[in-house]
Amino acid sequence: MFMHTLRRRMSALTAVLGLSIALPLTSGATPAYAVANLHVTKSHTGNFVRGGQGTYHITISNTGDPTADEVIVRDDFPQGLTLNGGVIVQGFPTTGVAFSCPVQEETGIVCSVLFDANTAVTIDLTLDVAADAPCGVVPNTVTASEQAEGILVSASDPTTVTGTGCSDGDGDGGTSILPVTLNGVVTPFNNISTNNNLLSPGATNTTRQNLGINAP
């Protein structure tokens, strides 16, 4: 009985020792759960005025493990905004990032990036604003996706188009309907006072008006 128990304890000890010896040999292996951790941000500089230009800045970073596959970056431009020149790439290490933009059209771009761990890439896009571009706030969203690991991230940067023909950036493109004349509209009353609440450019307010009733 004593020898049987001793053999079992020795067998368990051998298994533990074997495990402790094997672990250092595999410590450099990549765990099966290791994945990339992508982030994307978008901002702009310049005033998006009709007939002018503005620049979008897109940064994609990976704070996790290397990406298992290409990260596809896509940006479709709003109506009235078109790409001026090409994609300018900056602010990333010379090693650890493989970057290309096979699609650089006036209406949008499609780029591919392979990231090493803890790397990033920034792209600048200068856009022309058409003279008849829609006024007001225009949404613009960039997406970055990596299919192998099922990663999809996005960022939006709403910008406001202003300029000739735009009233106040609200997108209606209209103009004020004032001043309005009220001559002949109200005739049965006299001594009508109005508050100074018509602030349309070019409009005036009459504080007292003598009205008469014409005989038919």
Structural description of this entry:
It is a single chain. This protein has a domain of 124 residues: Immunoglobulin-like (Sandwich), CATH 2.60.40. The protein is elongated, with a radius of gyration of 34 Å. By secondary structure, the chain is mainly β. Helix content is 11%, strand content 35%. The N terminus is likely disordered. The protein contains 1 helix and 12 strands, in the order αββββββββββββ. A hairpin with a 2-residue loop joins β6 and β7. The strands form 3 sheets. Strands 1, 2, 4, 5 and 8 form a 5-stranded antiparallel beta sheet that branches. A 5-stranded antiparallel beta sheet has the order 6-7-3-10-11, with no helix packed on it.
The CATH class of the domain at 38-161 turns out to be Mainly Beta
Distance between the termini: 132 Å
Name the poorly predicted regions.
1-31, 169-182, 185-189
CATH fold call of the domain at 38-161: Immunoglobulin-like
Percent helix: 10-25%
**Radius of gyration, whole Å:** 34 Å
Beta-strand portion reads 35-45%
Sheet with the most strands, sense and barrel status? 5 strands, antiparallel
What is the tally of beta strands? Answer: 12
Chain oligomer state? single chain
Structural class: mainly beta
